[in-house]
Amino acid sequence: MTCYDRQDLGLLLLRLGTGGVLAAHGAQKLFGWFGGGGIEGTGAAMEAMGYSPGKQSAAMAGLAEAGGGTLLALGLATPAAGAAAAGAMAGATAVHAPNGFFAAAGGYEYAASLALTAAGLAVTGPGRLSLDHALGHAVNRGWMVPAALAVTGAATAVVVGMRNRRVREAAEFGQETLFDEADAVSGK
Length: 188
Hints:
The protein is mainly α.
């Protein structure tokens, strides 16, 4: 008879709560559920935020959130699930960073909290109340944690870097000329 301890119960609660929230966010992007925009609406929003092409960005973010969240809740392939979800939330953090830390002001507090929790679950593992444990940790090996986090970290850095470049270029291109150089030289 297996006796579960409070660590197993705590990890289960973290997985269910974080995974459920992430899965719901992903379903908003992918299917338009829970008041979401679906691929079309989310794609347009992603394009406006600098993630291009918008529909592909929406699909990838939705899959990372819905898939990663569902797998986290189940405690299955926990390193990959946590890393994927953390990567998606790092992308959301980049969008909210200009607004500061606190979510009340549109900041990155919420996205960063989800990212850190997902990454923490990838590192700690799902506990004994999980499919990973029931399946003998076939897709939850120690080497998978740094591999999943490294691959996701590299991919996220590239995607967010490209997005930041697009946003910067759009701001430079769209900025009004404050004065004309010819007028400044002639003293007008």
